Amino acid sequence: MALTPQNNEAFLREVDEELRRDRLAGFWERWGRWLIIGTVIGLAAFGAFLFWQHRARVAAGEEGERMQTAFDALAANKPADAGKPLAELAGSGRDGYRALALFTQADILLQKQDLRGAAAKFAAIAADQSQPAAFRDLASVRQSMAEFDTAKPQVIVDRLRPIAVPGNAYFGSAGELLGVAYMRQGRRDLAGPLFAQVAKEKDVPETIRQRVVQMAGLLGVDTPAIIPATEDTAR
């Protein structure tokens, strides 16, 4: 018996649906297990990421509390009580806390006149490439201050020459130390112009400016007049 157009269309739709079901069943049979595994792995990874974020926030909060504990102890003039939290933070995986703890430990050692120990702490920060350049530069300057009387002048020169450049935040301190190191080497030709250059920088602290102007004058190098203190700074 011949199929009517309506029956023919219904038959074709039924065949088409059957083929789709067969293809879907074959696809699922072939790839279904891998899809389930992929979904489970994706959910596990997302859950691990959320857990890591939570732990990072908790750990950061705990380290912040340790740092506050150390600062409270120092404010109460109890540096011994600050020792443990600072030692823990000095090994932190967070660069900021690690650097702050090392700087603080170094300052405590300076108060005890342990210049060698303080210099070692500053050196650790200066050598830590994960720290911002500004932190490393500051550590190099303070390390040089701590060991200036014991280190060879060339050591100070090599360390500070890259920092004692206009535009660097620590040009004033580094330039002054570098100039004195040059003088110890007998390099007045380098020390005088450097002192004059430091004196010209408007962002150099006034106390440093006054000293370098005097040093440059002793070396026969003209420097700009010292900027007079403003009404606010004179108070």
Describe the fold and architecture:
The protein has helices at 5-75, 79-89, 95-111, 115-126, 133-146, 153-160, 171-184, 188-200, 206-218, 231-234. With 235 residues, the chain is an all-alpha fold. Among the domains are: 60-130; 152-225, Serine Threonine Protein Phosphatase 5, Tetratricopeptide repeat. Helix 4 (115-126) runs antiparallel to helix 5 and helix 6 packs antiparallel against helix 7. The longest helix is centred in the N-terminal third of the chain and has 71 residues, at 5-75.
Which features characterize this protein?
235 residues; mainly alpha; Serine Threonine Protein Phosphatase 5, Tetratricopeptide repeat; 10 helices
Low-confidence segments, given as residue ranges, are 48-52, 226-235
Radius of gyration over C-alpha positions, nearest whole angstrom: 34 Å
Could you tell me the strand content as a percent range? under 5%
Question: Share of helix among residues?
Answer: over 70%
Could you tell me how far the N terminus lies from the C terminus, measured between alpha carbons in angstroms?
A: 114 Å
Going by helix content, strand content and strand pairing, the class is mainly alpha
The coarse overall form would be elongated
So how many helices?
A: 10
What's the total number of strands? 0
The helix-strand sequence is HHHHHHHHHH
CATH architect. name of the domain at 152-225: Alpha Horseshoe
Largest sheet: none
> What's the rounded overall pLDDT mean?
77
CATH topology of the domain at 152-225: Serine Threonine Protein Phosphatase 5, Tetratricopeptide repeat
